[in-house]
């Protein structure tokens, strides 16, 4: 059989992925096997692959491939999210490029443009995942705006509204002026920004006195409806009940007293702008203050802003501060740093805004999610996220589920009046008409009803994802939802623990009375070597597809997993992808070596017999360790165990122990065993490196292509001989020590070394003789003239006299002896210091005593070696 001298990943990856797809190995249908299901965290429909996706989906593919090989009916459901804010923003920008504003088109026309954009750019990321080797059931690909998915979301809204869990309320929201929609608290990122603290004078109406107020936002002065001071503030309490005039605006407002005011901040006086600050709004409600909203939806001043109407809030901040200064109302300005809320999606500074929105009552849901983790019905990995989970759920607020967007699931509320309760909620217009007739007690036509213009929060569709992908909302008792739900594992980032994970658990209990998955594994954040989060703006994020092209998909997968220690942030280094590629090459070359051996009808060597017995046991020990790591989601540790088993044990030790002498054939049994072990290793490795393992699997035997490794039986753990493994490990330590001795003394590997020990029962002499080119014998004789060396507690002796320059060796030993004597002197000086011994921590003193004993032992050995050479 002709085998290529070099492993060519690109060609092999295309060949086998096409084959897997063609044979339907990724597809799942309910059957008698136990199911193992993963639902993909749906990426944005118009998104492209980044390093976070690479890590997340590599882990998912490892889990799904392992389950498939372990006898489960593995189903990995892919899909994409419509991403309301991100997609709408891109469509709006595209229209602007054509000279069209969103306000110039109807909803229907806008949605046509949005669907055009989605069809043009959507699904790219799923195609990119195929390059990585993702074995998703592509026939099950879902999109959150698919007809059945859409119907599921609307049905859930109607159901929860009828249960009294969804309501309409007038509250302060986080307004994103760029996206022109409100967003949830979880979608607000607080960023430290440098700005100014403006000290503005408000004139008292009945005197020449002023009250000075410190504010970071002078542009909101146009919305002021009161000044507040603390009644316990001796400086300012006297002004309570008086009025002041807003500078330049020339509107009179009252001075009120409230304990909320921090006497230590600024001047101790606070301007109250109920429409532009959540705390001010609370005070406004408490004191029955007027609400004046001075900003429009774009973040520009409206008519309340007087001559600044139509100008951006940040432009007005500077211009109005200048005007205040010129008019004598600005006492001073100080630099000030504070945390400013910004939109996670657009980066725009959030504007608090009063608005009528739709809310979902969360307390009942939160209690179920808390209980799930507390009762171990749901496990979080790493476990440290349990505290994060509990803290958020114990302090949960009602979920604002409406967004001022067109792209998404339109809220199924139909209005017949302008009152806050003048509506009905229904799955369609026809049902809405019937509900309205009952509610109003009179006939009403569909033309009298107007559906809510807003769309639902994107997460409101994603929170039912594990149910809706199997149509479990529309058909709660269908065969697929009953078979595949609950899923087993969810792999996702910790940044969406609240947005998505907790809410899926809530909907799972509400609609299926059990959590949607049994385990949640939170991956770390992908960072560069400087610990910076990878991002396009920093230019520190490599192109995943270029990495795959350069190192092969298997190499990149290994590189990612070697970087990713159980749930900690991943410090990605491209060198690890090179290490992954080198690993693939190592495996390929090992396979070529075995295949290149000619066989002969002869007895198996003793070293080969021992090596085969040991490697079978060693593989079982490694498999037990891997299984333990998989259970704890320490997947990178499982890979590292396998990596060492293949590179160190199989390639560097086992193959060396069984290989024939140069130019000689190998016995047929040893070659068959070597191939058998390699096939087992390829099965273990397949979830991590699917392409090279499939290629080698088909080259090791004349297999029918339906016998693919992707559906081969995963090796089962069985008992291993711990004593055998320990003895062999000690043997290899001896081999290493002999090789080091050769290097140190300049003795050629071709020279046969005579080795003696009185502990031969603890070693495999056949292995030492084969790998270290020695003549090894047991002996209790005095070996004073031989070079002694230690491996753990074993003492061995080597006859090196004829291979070395005795004078040069004595000189080196003398130098080492002098160094050790000086080192011992320094240690003893420290230990003779009573102050150190009594004052230092116990473990520090113990460490110094160990240094003393080690140094004495080394000196004794040096003396012994020098004495032997001088005889």
Structural descriptors:
4-stranded antiparallel sheet; 7-stranded mixed sheet; 31 strands; alpha/beta; 871 residues
Compute the average pLDDT: 92
Q: Structural class of the helices, strands and pairings? A: alpha/beta
**Main sheet: strands, sense, barrel:** 7 strands, mixed
Q: How much helix is in the residues? A: 40-55%
What's the gyration radius in Å? 37 Å
State the end-to-end CA separation: 59 Å
Number of strands: 31
Number of helices: 27
Apparent shape: globular
How would you characterize the overall build of this protein?
With 871 residues, the chain is an alpha/beta fold. Helix content is 45%, strand content 17%. The protein has 27 helices and 31 strands. The strands form ten sheets. Strands 7, 8, 9, 10, 11, 12 and 13 form a seven-stranded mixed β-sheet that branches. A four-stranded antiparallel β-sheet has the order 6-5-14-16. Strands 29-28-31-30 form a four-stranded mixed β-sheet, with helices on both faces. Helix 19 packs antiparallel against helix 20.
Short recap of the structure:
The chain is α/β, with parallel strands linked by helices. It is built from 27 helices and 31 strands.
What order do the helices and strands come in, and which of them pair?
Elements: H1 9-23, E1 35-39, H2 51-69, E2 73-77, E3 79-80, H3 84-97, H4 107-121, H5 124-132, E4 142-143, H6 147-162, E5 166-176, E6 181-183, E7 188-204, E8 210-215, E9 226-229, E10 243-245, E11 252-257, E12 269-272, H7 278-287, H8 313-326, E13 330-343, E14 351-360, H9 363-374, E15 379-381, H10 385-394, E16 399-400, E17 402-403, E18 413-415, E19 423-425, H11 429-440, E20 450-451, E21 455-456, H12 458-462, H13 465-468, H14 479-484, E22 489-492, H15 497-512, E23 519-522, E24 526-527, H16 544-551, H17 553-563, E25 570-571, H18 574-595, E26 599-600, H19 606-631, H20 635-658, E27 666-667, H21 668-685, H22 690-699, H23 722-745, E28 753-757, H24 765-772, E29 774-778, E30 787-791, E31 794-799, H25 806-831, H26 834-839, H27 842-870
Parallel strand pairs: 1-2, 3-4, 9-11, 15-23, 22-23, 24-25, 26-27, 28-29
Antiparallel strand pairs: 5-6, 5-14, 7-8, 7-10, 7-13, 9-12, 10-11, 14-16, 17-21, 18-19, 18-20, 28-31, 30-31
Helix pairs in contact: 1-22, 3-4, 9-10, 9-15, 16-17, 17-18, 17-20, 18-20, 19-20, 19-21, 19-23, 20-21, 21-22, 23-24, 25-27
């Amino acid at each position: 059989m002709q085998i290529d001298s070099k492993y060519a990943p690109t060609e092999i990856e295309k060949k086998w992925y096409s084959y897997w797809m063609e044979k339907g190995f990724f597809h799942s249908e309910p059957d008698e096997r136990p199911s193992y299901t993963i639902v993909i965290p749906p990426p944005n429909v118009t998104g492209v692959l980044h390093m976070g996706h690479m890590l997340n989906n590599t882990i998912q593919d490892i889990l799904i491939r392992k389950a498939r090989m372990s006898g489960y009916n593995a189903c990995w459901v892919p899909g994409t999210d419509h991403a309301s804010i991100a997609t709408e923003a891109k469509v709006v920008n595209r229209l602007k490029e054509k000279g069209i504003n969103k306000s110039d088109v109807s909803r229907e026309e806008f949605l046509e443009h949005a669907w055009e954009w989605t069809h043009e750019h959507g699904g790219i990321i799923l195609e990119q995942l195929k390059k990585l080797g993702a074995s998703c059931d592509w026939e099950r690909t879902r999109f959150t705006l698919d007809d059945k998915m859409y119907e599921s979301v609307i049905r859930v809204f109607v159901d929860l509204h009828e249960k009294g869990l969804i309501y309409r309320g007038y509250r302060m929201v986080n307004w994103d002026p760029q996206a022109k929609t409100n967003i949830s608290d979880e979608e607000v990122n607080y960023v430290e920004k440098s700005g100014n603290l403006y000290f503005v004078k408000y004139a008292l109406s009945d005197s020449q006195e002023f009250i000075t107020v410190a504010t970071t936002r002078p542009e909101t002065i146009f919305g002021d409806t009161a000044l507040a001071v603390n009644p316990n503030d001796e400086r300012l309490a006297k002004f309570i009940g008086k009025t002041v005039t807003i500078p330049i605006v020339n509107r009179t407002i009252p001075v009120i007293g409230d304990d909320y005011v921090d006497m230590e901040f600024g001047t101790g006086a606070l301007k109250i702008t109920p429409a532009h600050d959540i705390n001010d709004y609370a005070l406004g409600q408490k004191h029955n203050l007027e609400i004046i909203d001075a900003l429009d939806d774009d973040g520009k001043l409206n008519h309340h802003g007087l001559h600044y109407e139509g100008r951006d809030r940040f432009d007005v901040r500077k211009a109005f501060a200048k005007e205040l200064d010129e008019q004598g109302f600005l006492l001073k300005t100080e630099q000030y740093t504070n945390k400013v809320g910004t939109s996670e999606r657009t980066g725009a500074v959030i504007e608090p805004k009063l608005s009528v929105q739709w809310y979902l009552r969360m307390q009942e849901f939160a209690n179920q999610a808390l209980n799930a983790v507390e009762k171990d019905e749901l496990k979080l990995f790493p476990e440290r996220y349990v505290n994060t989970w509990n803290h958020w759920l114990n302090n949960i607020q009602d979920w604002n589920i409406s967004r001022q967007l067109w792209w998404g699931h339109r809220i199924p509320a139909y209005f017949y009046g302008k009152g806050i309760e003048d509506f009905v909620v229904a799955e369609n217009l026809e049902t809405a008409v019937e509900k309205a007739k009952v509610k109003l007690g009179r006939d009403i036509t569909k033309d009298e009803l107007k559906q809510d213009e807003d769309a639902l929060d994107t997460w409101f569709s994603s929170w039912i994802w594990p149910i809706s992908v199997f149509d479990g909302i529309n058909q709660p008792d269908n065969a697929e939802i009953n078979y595949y739900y609950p899923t087993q594992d969810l792999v996702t980032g910790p940044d969406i623990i609240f947005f998505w994970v907790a809410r899926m658990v809530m909907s799972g209990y509400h609609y299926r009375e059990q959590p949607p998955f049994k385990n949640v594994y939170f991956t770390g954040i992908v960072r560069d070597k400087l610990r910076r989060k990878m991002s396009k703006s920093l230019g520190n994020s490599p192109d995943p597809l270029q990495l795959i092209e350069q190192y092969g998909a298997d190499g990149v997968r290994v590189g990612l997993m070697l970087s990713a220690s159980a749930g900690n942030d991943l410090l990605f280094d491209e060198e690890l992808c090179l290490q992954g590629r080198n690993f693939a090459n190592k495996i390929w070359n090992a396979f070529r070596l075995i295949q290149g051996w000619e066989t002969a009808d002869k007895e198996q060597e003793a070293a080969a017999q021992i090596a085969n017995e040991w490697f079978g046991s060693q593989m079982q020990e490694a498999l037990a360790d891997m299984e333990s790591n998989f259970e704890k989601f320490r997947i990178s540790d499982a890979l590292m165990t396998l990596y060492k088993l293949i590179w160190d044990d199989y390639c560097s030790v086992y193959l060396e122990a069984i290989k024939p002498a140069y130019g000689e054939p190998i016995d047929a049994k040893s070659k068959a065993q070597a191939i058998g072990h390699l096939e087992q290793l390829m099965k273990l490795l397949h979830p991590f490196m699917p392409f090279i393992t499939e290629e080698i699997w088909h080259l090791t035997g004349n297999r029918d292509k339906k016998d693919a490794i992707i559906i081969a039986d995963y090796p089962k753990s069985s008992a291993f001989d711990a004593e055998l493994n320990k003895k062999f490990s000690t043997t290899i330590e001896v081999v290493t020590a002999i090789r080091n001795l050769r290097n140190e003394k300049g003795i050629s590997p071709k020279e046969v070394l005579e080795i003696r020990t009185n502990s031969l029962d603890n070693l495999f002499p056949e292995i030492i003789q084969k790998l270290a080119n020695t003549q090894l014998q047991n002996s209790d004789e005095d070996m004073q003239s031989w070079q002694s060396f230690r491996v753990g507690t074993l003492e061995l002796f080597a006859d090196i006299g004829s291979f070395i320059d005795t004078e040069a060796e004595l000189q080196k030993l003398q130098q080492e002896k002098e160094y050790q004597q000086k080192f011992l002197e320094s240690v003893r000086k420290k230990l003779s210091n009573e102050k150190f011994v009594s004052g230092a921590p116990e473990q520090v003193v113990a460490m110094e005593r160990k240094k003393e004993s080690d140094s004495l032992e080394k000196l004794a050995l040096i003396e012994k070696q020098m004495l032997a050479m001088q005889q």
